[in-house]
Amino acid sequence: MRMVDLIAKKRDGKELTKEEISFIVEGYTSGDIPDYQMSAFTMAVFFQGMTANEQAELTMSMVQSGDTIDLSAIEGVKVDKHSTGGVGDTTTLILAPLVAAVGVPVAKMSGRGLGHTGGTIDKLEAVKGFHVEIDKKEFIELVNKNKVAVVGQSGNLTPADKKIYALRDVTATVNSLPLIAASIMSKKIAAGADAIVLDVKTGAGAFMKNLEDAKALAQSMVNIGNNVDRQTMAVISDMSQPLGFAIGNALEVEEAIDTLKGKGPKDLEELCLVLGSYMVYLANKASSLEEARRMLQEVIENGKALESFKTFLAAQGGDPSVVDDVAKLPQAAHKSEVKAEKDGYVSEIVADEMGTAAMWLGAGRATKDSEIDLAVGLMLRKKVGDEVKKGESLVTIYSNKEDVQEVKEHILKNISISSEKVDAPSLIYDTVQKSN
Ligand code: URA
Ligand code: CA
Predict the structure, then answer these.
(1) Sign of CA dihedral 252, 221, 274, 215
(2) Is 182 in the pocket of ligand 1 (CB under 6 A)?
(3) Are residues 337 and 395 in contact, defined by beta-carbon separation less than 8 angstroms?
(4) What DSSP element (H or E) covers 428?
(5) Comparing 314 with 118, which gets the higher pLDDT?
(6) CA distance 31 to 29
(7) Does the domain at residues 79-324 carry the CATH identifier 3.40.1030.10?
(8) Residue in 167, 184, 189 to alter for ligand 1 test, most ligand atoms within 8 A of Cβ
(9) Which ligand gives the minimal distance to the CA of 256?
(10) Helix axes of 35-48 and 3-11: crossing angle, nearest 10 degrees
(11) Quick one: which ligand is closest to 264's CA?
């Protein structure tokens, strides 16, 4: 087989075979295929797309390029959730203990934040003592015992994806639907998921800025999952404005605790109940989505979800008493309000720009090596559709530096107030299941 022929085949819009796709993935990972040929190939895919079969083969070739996590020692169906990334997305912190409380095993591999999006591990580290440095054996024991544990990303998972993603980044081929779909699904499958629930975001804060693209991406990933025998479902959710109120590590932990108590922001709670219902259903713990939702509501009401969070924190060295006393979380030295400059209705809160503002305060990393400040961030006081009076607070800034003028101006520039009444955006636009 010659790479040049395979590039030509894709350029001409033909379907590649399983053998051809694994030849490309293996060859590129090992260094036998040079960057310039792989660049031409990814560009050909960008223009010609890939069939469902090709996407499934690409995904599995990338899975096989490195280590895979074997979770077979954990009882039950391991369901993973993946969000395509957003701002103030506190769902994992809530969902992990929430679905664990109804008996769904959560063996979660998580990452750190970069740029305007946060990472689950950073957020959890706002709890004093919490760490993810546990070995494989302990991880599995904890999931069997408590139904939930979180570890950091292991070194050699999907090396093919790492290398291809880096190449796409500099060849203007990141935004190719089949390549994104295979990239995300390969990582979930390598991490050991039996079933996968996807939260595909759409709007300013998301990869997919419009609904149509988000739906197409969701459908591709759902088809890949089902084609390789991992039951997969997706919801398309709004990321035009940040989710919930809190953006920032300790602030989001507090928001997660509130939500587990049934006192969280309504949008965040609803998204957690929807995603959680799918997880419970795919794990065969409920016979319908309605039953799954009732089970989740019950463990919020009877305190079991909160108890599960405490157990999980303590098992990984964290201080569980923060749950009853959130003042023990890292606290910022200064608070200041971003005030509305006129009366009206909030019509837009640009999600990724709020993420950027939080990053400037130190809540996120500008580069991979930046240090983050767990205490700082933003609390939205208004959401899209809310009425606001001139001088009322739109956002509270929590900072450890006194001068936050630049951040304030950036926030004001990215929140629009209209004189006309505005409807709150839909939270969930659609759900996607296997197509026949
Ligand atoms: N996220 C991923 O993991 N891969 C992509 O290709 C795009 C977004
Ligand atoms: Ca939030």
Answers:
(1) positive
(2) no
(3) yes
(4) strand 428-432
(5) 314
(6) 5
(7) yes
(8) 184
(9) 2
(10) 20
(11) 2
As a CATH number, domain 332-418 is: 3.90.1170.30
Q: Give bridge partners of residue 199 from the DSSP assignment.
A: 83, 235
What does the pLDDT look like over 391-432, one tens digit per residue?
999 999 999 999 999 999 999 999 999 999 999 999 999 999
Q: Which atom of ligand 1 is nearest to the CA of 179?
A: 6
Which protein residue's CA is at the shortest distance from atom 2 of ligand 1? 184
Between CA 128 and CA 318 the distance in angstroms is 6
Type of residue numbered 81 = K
CA 204 to centroid of chain Cα atoms: 15
Question: Which of 183, 196, 198, 207 to mutate to test ligand 1, by most ligand atoms within 8 A of the CB atom?
Answer: 183
Tokens of 317: 């060295």
**Whole-structure pTM value:** 0.93
Beta carbon of 184 within 6 Å of any ligand 1 atom: yes
Query: Does position 153 have pLDDT exceeding 90, yes or no?
Result: no
Band of pLDDT at residue 51, cut at 50, 70 and 90? very high
Burial 248-283 (b: 16+ CB within 10 A, else e): bbbbbbbbbbbbbeeebbebbbebbbbbbbbbbbbb
User: Do 332 and 400 touch, CB atoms closer than 8 A?
Assistant: yes
| CATH architecture observed for domain 3-49 | Up-down Bundle (1.20)
Tens digit of each residue's pLDDT (9 = 90 or more) over 33-49: 999 999 999 999 999 99
d(CA 128, CA 323): 12
**CA distance linking residue 245 with residue 268, whole number of Å:** 9
For 314, the enclosing helix (H) or strand (E) is: helix 304-315
- The residue ranges of every structural domain in the chain are 3-49, 79-324, 332-418
Q: What is the secondary structure of 320-352 as a DSSP string?
A: GGGGT-GGGS---SEEEEEE-SSSEEEEEE-HH
Residue 155, pLDDT > 80, answer no
> In the numeric block, which tokens belong to residue 165?
């993603």
HSE-up of residue 28 (Cα within 13 Å, Cβ side) = 27
Q: Do domains 3-49 and 332-418 have the same CATH topology?
A: no
Give the rounded distance of the alpha carbon of 151 from its chain centre. 15
